[in-house]
Write a structure and sequence with these properties.
binds zinc ion, elongated, alpha+beta
């Protein structure tokens, strides 16, 4: 399967969207071809209704981020997973339809008539756009997309992790795309969504750790990284909160020489600059004749001298 054919999972490449909803057509100035399209649309929707194929579609968001999908035809957002909850939910119920034309838009109604078609998107088909954006189709996709997303046909009524749900997928036959479903346990879908999300999260944290070490790249750490860091800690994917998570590193917490965040317990930065001479002396990092001790106050010198005396006495 070529990946190019699934670049736009919902809209065919030759789709030209003339209306963005099912009620936006102005009936007063419809040409003959447009009226035919409208009739075609009504017929398609009626067929689907009579066959019982118009069912709700549901997306579960396990991630701490807002999910967003906007194509000329659909605009949906799914809120972030609330703290302490297993997911946030969006269920959609309506169809969306759009005309497809092949050829020149400027042609007269008469010549267009035979070239128009109308495509009706089922609720779950619309949600495939989320799958494309957040799950992906190929193995490579799955490494770079955020995951944490589950899509199935139906609503949440009576659904538990032990339920079997109908999962939509696109298949391609002779250049055409078809929607089909497979049954899967919701529990398994959640595990898959979480595995992808955790992979992505850990990759982001590793990148952010590298950024945090270098003052030139530290500003690359933005909300996205902070949200992942907090979420990873909540999920117990990491044993402790990331040090760089503490929003902004204050200047007084940075090393004056290398500007890295200064986290030493011995008064000495990893670049070997003595940030805190008194502490560095007390912890044995520097000797009493170190030049940085010249910055000490008289009060601190008393402590240094007392300690030096203790050390000298101890050696005797
Ligand atoms: Zn330093």
């Amino acid at each position: 399967m070529a990946t190019s054919v699934i670049d736009h999972p919902v809209l065919p490449e030759d789709a030209n969207i003339l209306a963005t909803g099912d009620h936006l057509v102005n009936l007063n100035n419809l040409g003959q071809a447009a009226q035919e399209r409208l009739r075609l649309r009504e017929r398609r929707i009626t067929e689907l209704e009579l066959r019982g194929e118009i069912k709700p579609g549901t997306i579960l968001n396990r991630s701490p981020f807002t999910l967003r999908v906007e194509s000329g035809l659909i605009q949906y957002t799914v809120p972030p997973r609330p703290k302490g909850k297993p997911f946030s939910i969006l269920t959609i119920t309506g169809t969306r339809s759009f005309p497809i034309y092949r050829g020149n838009q400027e042609m007269s109604d008469k010549s267009l008539r035979g070239k128009y078609d109308v495509k009706v998107l089922l609720p779950v088909e619309q949600l495939m756009e989320f799958k494309h954006t957040y799950i992906g189709e190929t193995e490579e996709d799955r490494l770079v997309k955020a995951g944490g997303v589950i899509i199935f046909e139906g609503d949440m009524e009576g659904v538990t992790p032990k339920s079997t749900v109908r999962v939509p997928e696109f298949v391609f036959r002779k250049g055409e795309r078809y929607l089909r479903f497979r049954d899967q346990l919701l529990k398994e879908l959640i595990d898959e969504a979480d595995a992808q999300m955790k992979n992505r999260c850990m990759a982001v944290l590793i990148q952010a750790d590298t950024w945090a070490d270098d003052p030139k790249t530290r500003a690359n750490i933005q909300d996205n990284e902070r949200i992942w860091a907090d979420f990873a800690f909540e999920q117990q994917w990491i044993p402790a909160a990331r040090a760089w998570r503490n929003t902004v590193i204050r200047p007084e917490d940075s090393c004056p020489r290398c500007n890295a965040q200064y986290v030493s317990k011995t008064g000495m930065c990893k670049c070997s600059y003595v940030v805190n001479p008194l502490l560095a002396y007390m912890s044995g990092e520097i000797a009493v004749d170190h030049v940085r001790l010249n910055t000490l106050s008289a009060e601190d010198w008393k402590k240094v001298n007392a300690e030096q005396k203790r050390r000298d006495d101890a050696r005797k």
